[in-house]
Design brief:
The structure holds 2 protein chains of 2 kinds. Chain A contains 26 helices and no strands. By secondary structure, chain A is mostly helical. Chain A has a domain of 280 residues: MetI-like (MetI-like fold, Orthogonal Bundle), CATH 1.10.3720.10. Chain B is an alpha/beta fold. Chain B folds into 2 domains: 173 residues, Periplasmic binding protein-like II (D-Maltodextrin-Binding Protein, domain 2, 3-Layer(aba) Sandwich), CATH 3.40.190; 135 residues, D-Maltodextrin-Binding Protein, domain 2 (3-Layer(aba) Sandwich). In chain B, the strands form 2 sheets. In chain B, strands 1, 2, 3, 4, 10 and 11 form a 6-stranded mixed beta sheet that branches. In chain B, strands 7-6-8-5-9 form a 5-stranded mixed beta sheet, covered by helices on one side. The chains are: A mainly alpha, B alpha/beta. The interface between A and B is large, with 53 and 69 residues.
Chain lengths: 572, 348
């Protein structure tokens, strides 16, 4: 079959499948494998004089500060996973399977928390819950008339860090579990009910086991996100006096830089990520039975009855903590003098806006770079993902499966590791890409490719090949059918994938932080720089601009008629 | 690669800077119409600085009112971050910076040794600057100085209870109350940590680390945490940020301990590979002008070596403060020790 297809391709002579395949394989290999190669190379290289050595790995095992950073990072990640799961699962069930009021708007609001960059969320929580100046603690002291040494919550702690990260990673669990619950067939639950099971028994013995794989998979993603996150730990863990592994790797780049040790310290992170992803895959692989009966009936809706108000209170609390409070804190800080000020007409000021928009010279450049890179990355990644998933799903070229593996592989590379790898690969006199936006484009493409590919390939599996076959029979080449027939059919998915990648690019910080220079500043990086000098007002202004622009781009992309906008409404 | 450069640099530091070419400083220059025209033709100057961002932007604004044709791109980060950035850029052949300024004097010894600096002496520096506040070979000069000071919120700690000496900070009553910047980020704090560890020994820092001190990065940040009311007492931080808070009416007070207060000198220099050499030369001369130095003092609260700068009333003059000077040649070889000791006692 394959040799036949190959021979056909050759006979026709105009089919570009093979050259496309070869080119994509080359591009993806360079994107993914080159940084990893340099990472491994440097980890075995002596920083001082060159030459092969195991010193870096010995230092890695012998250095208690590195081991402690790893221990804390793993602990933090597990904590985030558990908390995200505990928050998200009941919420997903309430939204998907009960008569809770306002279910649709809740889903939209969860998406809003997903779009918020975690570092911005962490800064918002500094404003809300710092032990002395945090709004919550000020109110607490005022309400109970306590002296200044008392506080209710302290975000600069290990638990505070876990909380602040979980607030902005729980949407991963929520989305997966809610989707799974949407698909669980009602007949199994009905069977339980007929056999005399009370609704709680049914929930415990039937529904939960059925969505358990989705829960675990979502939790694993949350764990992975937390483990590889740079921004939030840098903002909350460093003031608390501890490093997690990502901030520790970052500190190894300070003068005098220890590149070999940084590379060696990054490798276990890669290994852990691969292990977690394999675990996720094996769990998701067994999920088949939940979808199996997916068409056998509408999901059962549980009447909450008197519990309704408790459920509403729970959901509102979660949304307050993850969306309303952080956004309110950012807005307040953007318009008042310092964080401690109460809101009144005296303290309202546009000083921070004036500073960011007219005095701070980095703003315009950073905004331009950020959106330019967002557009470029989203467009390139969507295009590559479209072609790759076409080649893989339609198996038009033998060995195309390998391309799919390559496109998914970067998922296993944490941002900070990729940053180190790309710095080692391209910041040398041969390439001289460091200091240009191209190195950032490469980084973002690599980071976002798996997400884009996943979205496109699942969309492709939903389109029957017969339409394409019609095109092929009429004499069009493969790529032509792809562009003329398949792509238009998939346009809503294309737009969705594009927006997803765009938002992902805008909020990226962990790889970016190692790769930017003066001329390639991004908004995320200047927010981080400003945080290190304590200019919270300016950060909040930039955060608002960033969020508003991201929402606007996503909104416009979904409404432009040419792009098939009207059908997008359901996606929120 | 640049690791090699640095390790070579560290070795060279041990052997003193004797091997570097010891040329005489070039003749002082003045701002001529030709220089102004050439600078305007370039239209842009890139300034890497470690001065607080609002102060640096204010300075850029003043420059732009004089030369509207020349844009100033201010790149502000902590001293060590600026240093890291220029190191990464130069090792990969990127020459985007014209004028550089950090508060860690070690950096300028390093730049000079590497031959990255273009020697030049503005007339103002030649005429007015004290000899030990500028490089004898004309590579750089002290653009600003500031102290790393202890300070507290007067509404949260009353004067009688406030610390008077560095050792006072070890008192249990200050536990959970202090904020401190990081030597791995801030050149000011690196200098301060070095002189205080020489003066008081590392066991002082070990005990301080047990006081649950809030750790921030830049030396501009502890004063801002005081302003927010997040902490009542700063262990270190820029004096000039406190001056600015005093101007804004924030209830803070500086302590100048009898043991001495660490002095950080911020040098400035023009890079040999500057992409806009004439604009750089013009901007460099501007940095040392009375006008710019007076702005730094008035708006920024920085100390100046320009003898004609008038300090605002109410600020303690440098002559009445016991200063702790740091020797960059002694500091450079122990940077790694300071960082690892610090991490051991403070966690990061």
């Amino acid at each position: 079959m394959t040799s036949y297809a190959w021979a056909q391709g050759r006979l026709r002579g105009i089919d570009l499948s093979w050259p496309t395949f070869a080119l994509l394989t080359l591009v993806l290999s360079v994107l993914v494998l080159l940084p990893l190669f340099w990472l491994v190379y440097y980890s075995f290289r002596n920083d001082a004089g060159g030459g092969a050595t195991l010193d870096n790995f010995i230092a890695l095992v012998a250095d208690p500060t590195l081991l402690r950073a790893y221990g804390l990072a793993i602990g933090m990640a597990l904590g985030v996973g558990a908390l995200a799961c505990v928050i998200a699962t009941p919420m997903a069930w309430l939204v998907s399977r009960t008569d809770l009021p306002g279910r649709r708007i809740i889903r939209v609001l969860v998406t809003a928390s997903f779009v918020t960059p975690p570092f911005l969320g962490a800064i918002a929580y500094e404003i809300i819950a710092a032990p002395n100046s945090g709004i919550v603690n000020i109110l607490y002291r005022k309400l109970f008339g306590l002296d200044s040494s008392q506080y209710l919550v302290n975000i600069y702690t290990f638990t505070g860090l876990i909380f602040a990260i979980a607030c902005f990673t729980f949407p991963y669990v929520f989305t997966l579990v809610a989707n799974a619950l949407d698909k669980v067939p009602s007949d199994l639950e009905d069977a339980s009910a007929i056999l005399g099971g009370k609704s709680m028994t049914t929930l415990r013995k039937v529904t939960i086991p059925l969505v358990l794989p989705a829960m675990l998979a979502g939790t694993l993603i949350a764990i992975l996100q937390a483990l590889t996150m740079f921004g939030s730990p840098a903002i909350l863990a460093l003031p608390a006096g501890f490093h997690v592994i990502t901030t520790k790797i970052w500190s190894l780049f300070q003068f005098p830089p220890r590149l070999g040790l940084a590379a060696a310290a990054a490798l276990p992170l890669l290994v852990i990520t691969v292990i977690l992803l394999r675990a996720q895959k094996s769990i998701l692989g067994r999920k088949g039975y939940t979808v199996l009966g997916g068409k056998s009936g509408t999901p059962r809706v549980t009447q909450l009855g008197p519990w309704k108000w408790l459920a509403v209170a729970f959901v509102v609390t979660v949304l307050c903590l993850t969306v309303f409070f952080p956004y309110a804190a950012i807005l307040k800080t953007a318009f008042t003098g310092t964080v401690g000020d109460a809101i009144s007409f005296d303290t309202l000021t546009l000083r921070h806006w004036k500073f960011v928009l007219f005095e701070f010279s980095a703003t315009q450049l950073a905004l331009r770079n950020t959106f330019l890179l967002g557009f470029m990355t989203a467009t390139v990644v969507t295009a590559i993902a479209l072609v790759v998933s076409y080649l893989v799903i339609r198996r038009s070229v033998s060995g195309s499966g390998f391309l799919g593996v390559l496109a998914t592989a970067p998922v296993a590379i944490p941002g900070i590791v990729l940053g180190v790898g790309l710095f080692l690969s391209y910041a040398n006199p041969t390439f001289q890409l460091y200091g240009t936006i191209w190195i950032l484009l490469i980084a973002f493409m690599t980071i976002e490719l798996p997400a884009g590919y996943q979205q496109m390939s699942s969309a492709f599996s939903g389109v029957h090949p017969e339409l394409e076959e019609a095109g092929r029979i009429m004499g069009a080449s493969r790529l032509r059918t792809l562009w003329d027939i398949t792509a238009p059919l998939l346009r809503t998915s294309v737009v969705a994938a594009w927006c997803f990648v765009f938002v992902g690019t805008i909020r990226e910080l962990s790889a970016t932080i190692l790769l930017t220079t003066a001329n390639t500043k991004l908004v995320s990086v200047i927010i981080y720089d400003l945080n290190e000098s304590g200019d919270l007002g300016a950060i909040c202004v930039l955060g608002i601009i960033l969020l508003a622009a991201s929402f606007a781009v996503v909104f416009i992309a979904n409404r432009v008629p040419v792009l098939g906008g009207s059908q997008m409404n359901a996606r929120g | 690669m640049w690791t090699k450069i640095f390790s070579a640099g560290l070795l060279a530091a041990g052997m003193t800077a004797s091997s570097a070419a010891m040329a005489e400083a070039p003749a002082p220059y003045q701002i001529t119409p030709e220089l102004e025209a050439a600078a305007k033709a370039e239209g842009k100057v890139v300034f890497y600085t470690a001065t607080d961002v609002t102060v640096a932007e204010k300075l850029a604004e003043l420059f732009k009112t004089k030369y509207p044709e020349i844009a100033v791109q201010v790149e502000r980060a902590g001293s060590e971050r600026v240093f890291q950035r220029i190191g990464q850029e130069y090792s990969t052949g990127i020459y985007s910076v014209d004028v550089i300024e950090t508060s860690d004097a070690v950096h300028f010894q390093y730049f000079k040794r590497e031959g990255w600096l273009e020697p030049m002496v503005p007339q103002e520096v030649a005429d007015k600057w004290p000899a030990d506040e500028r490089d004898p070979d004309g590579n750089f000069a002290a653009y600003r100085a500031h102290l790393s000071v202890m300070a507290y919120r007067t509404d949260l700690i009353n004067e009688a209870e406030a610390p008077k000496t560095w050792k006072d900070l070890l008192d249990p009553r200050f536990k959970d109350k202090m904020v401190k910047a990081h030597p791995g980020y801030s050149g000011t704090v690196m200098t301060a940590t070095f002189v205080l560890s020489e003066l008081l020994g590392w066991d002082y820092f070990e005990k301080l680390g047990a006081q649950n001190v809030m750790q921030v990065q830049s030396s501009t940040e502890p004063p801002k945490k005081l302003a927010q009311g997040e902490r009542a007492l700063e262990v270190d931080g820029n004096e000039y940020n406190i001056f600015r808070l005093l101007d804004e009416g924030v209830p803070v007070k500086i302590v100048y301990p009898a043991e001495g207060t660490p002095l950080a000198v911020g040098n400035a220099a023009v890079l040999k590979q500057a992409p806009n050499p004439n604009a750089a030369k013009l901007f460099y001369a501007f940095l040392f002008s009375l006008e710019a130095q007076q702005l730094n003092s008035d708006f920024g609260g920085l100390r100046s070596f320009h003898p004609d700068v008038k300090e605002k009333a109410g600020r303690t003059p440098l002559s009445q403060i016991k200063l702790l000077h740091s020797d960059p040649a002694k500091l450079e070889p122990v940077i790694q020790t300071i960082k690892s000791n610090y991490e051991q006692y403070f966690g990061t």
